[in-house]
């Protein structure tokens, strides 16, 4: 019998496509039955394919509508991930809300998010009582995190003078000393990989007392060119090798919790270790579909992920059809459809993905 092959369509911005779609990934995936196919931006998505799976990192109403049309026409295809779920990460408040709601028990390590407030206008910015409880230094981050260069422009604010140049809407977040190293935790379905990167250096008590300028601007501090970041020299120069990693099982617990709560498969989160406590970790940023190509062995990790999804989808479709046949013959198709649909919405330990083999008519589009 001919080998079953799967088409995975990808819709990515040019820079992302260049970094992610490398020959090494394409050929490994191909050898395992997965054909990675570029989705043309000039042609409606629903007119392309067939695709068993769509992978995307594009924004805007038009793209959302195209995905909706595609989904209506191809109820058996898997979309990784739903725009409704991705959108939460485009706002730095909703992005971290999910962390505050997460509960992980029986661990000596604790986690949370830094103290923060959102400022929508200039008046509130200078209204001290509005941000009582938040101490300098703070980091000012654009509220919107939509991938634009502007959304990565930040400032470390040491005192009141530093506030005047800020342009709300912004998030003011307590700057937490963390030894100048950030942990980036990459998640691909159930796979979790942590790497160390250079971060902002600690601020001393003296500096806090105001010997510095009011404001220090920066952007994407951990994002150096690929070769600089991965080679041994970078690790040595930045003293990264001296920094102990957080326990992998702890990060895996957080990753799993976030994945379930957010209903996302492809993301990374930035973690810092609070220098005031040895075992307190703070999550400061979550990114959709980050730069996976920087992750060692990303080709294998991503190919395994695609294969898992496709196998799961095949099983679910078969199961759905069997159940539907049974239901049809007993004349209770509608009820059975609901049951089967709900089953796919569950997020059990096996990492069930957002697949529904039957009609999505009765589903809430946000539910995956
Ligand atoms: O470009 P890269 O490979 O550095 O990846 C960026 C990510 O770097 P990281 O993997 O975390 O080191 C980067 O992560 P940070 O925000 O720098 O933590 C973002 O995910 C960025 O996407 P966007 O601009 O927020 O949409 C990512 O940019 P895109 O590739 O998605 O444009
Ligand atoms: N609360 C914080 N305390 C200390 N350093 C921080 C804090 N928030 C951000 N940083 C530093 O600023 C960098 C950029 O912030 P981040 O929220 O990750 O924005 P971006 O989405 O642009 O990556 C981080 O990688 C880290 O080095
Ligand atoms: Mg970040
Ligand atoms: Mg980010």
TrEMBL record:
Residue positions binding Mg(2+) 2: 285, 287
Residues annotated as binding 1D-myo-inositol 1,3,4-trisphosphate: 16, 152, 184, 287, 291
Xref: SUPFAM superfamilies: Glutathione synthetase ATP-binding domain-like
GO biological process, one term: inositol trisphosphate metabolic process
Chain sites annotated for binding Mg(2+) 1: 270, 285
Binding site for 1D-myo-inositol 1,3,4,6-tetrakisphosphate: 57
This protein's UniProt keywords: ATP-binding, Kinase, Magnesium, Metal-binding, Nucleotide-binding, Transferase
One Pfam family it belongs to: Ins134_P3_kin
Cofactors (names): Mg(2+)
Reactions this protein catalyses: 1D-myo-inositol 3,4,5,6-tetrakisphosphate + ATP = 1D-myo-inositol 1,3,4,5,6-pentakisphosphate + ADP + H(+)
A single GO cellular-component term on record: cytoplasm
PANTHER family per the UniProt record, alphabetical: INOSITOL-TETRAKISPHOSPHATE 1-KINASE (PTHR14217), INOSITOL-TETRAKISPHOSPHATE 1-KINASE 1 (PTHR14217:SF24)
Function: Kinase that can phosphorylate various inositol polyphosphate such as Ins(3,4,5,6)P4 or Ins(1,3,4)P3.
Entry protein name: Inositol-tetrakisphosphate 1-kinase
Originating species: Morus notabilis
């Amino acid at each position: 019998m001919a080998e079953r092959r799967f088409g995975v369509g990808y819709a990515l911005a040019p820079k992302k496509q260049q970094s992610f779609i490398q020959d090494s990934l394409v050929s490994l995936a191909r050898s395992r039955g997965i054909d990675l196919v570029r989705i043309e931006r000039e042609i409606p998505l629903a007119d392309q394919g067939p695709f068993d799976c769509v992978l995307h990192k594009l924004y805007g109403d038009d793209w959302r509508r195209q995905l909706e049309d595609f989904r209506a026409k191809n109820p058996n295809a898997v979309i990784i991930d739903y725009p409704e779920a991705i959108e939460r990460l485009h706002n730095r408040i909703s992005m971290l809300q999910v962390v505050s709601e997460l509960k992980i028990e029986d661990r000596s390590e604790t986690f949370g998010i830094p103290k923060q407030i959102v400022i929508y206008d200039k008046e509130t910015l200078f209204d001290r009582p509005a941000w009582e409880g938040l101490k300098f230094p703070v980091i000012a981050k654009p509220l919107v995190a939509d991938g634009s260069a502007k959304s990565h422009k930040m400032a470390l604010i040491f005192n009141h003078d530093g506030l005047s140049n800020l342009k709300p809407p912004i998030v003011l977040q307590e700057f937490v000393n963390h030894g100048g190293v950030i942990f980036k935790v990459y998640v691909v379905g159930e796979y979790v990989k942590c790497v160390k990167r250079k971060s902002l250096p600690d601020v001393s008590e003296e500096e806090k007392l105001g010997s510095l300028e009011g404001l220090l601007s920066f952007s994407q501090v951990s994002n150096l060119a690929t070769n600089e970041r991965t080679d041994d020299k970078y690790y040595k120069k930045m003293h990264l090798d001296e920094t102990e990693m957080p326990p992998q099982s702890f990060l895996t617990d957080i990753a799993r919790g976030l994945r379930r709560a957010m209903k996302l498969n492809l993301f990374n989160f930035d973690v810092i270790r609070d220098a005031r406590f040895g075992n307190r970790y703070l999550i400061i940023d979550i990114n959709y579909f980050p730069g996976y190509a920087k992750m060692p062995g990303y080709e294998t990790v991503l190919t395994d992920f695609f294969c898992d999804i496709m196998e799961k989808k095949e099983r679910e479709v078969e199961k759905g059809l069997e159940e539907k046949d049974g239901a049809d013959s007993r004349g209770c198709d509608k009820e059975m459809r609901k049951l089967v649909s709900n089953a796919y919405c569950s997020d059990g330990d096996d990492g069930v993905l957002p697949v529904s083999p039957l009609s999505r008519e009765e589903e809430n589009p946000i539910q995956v």
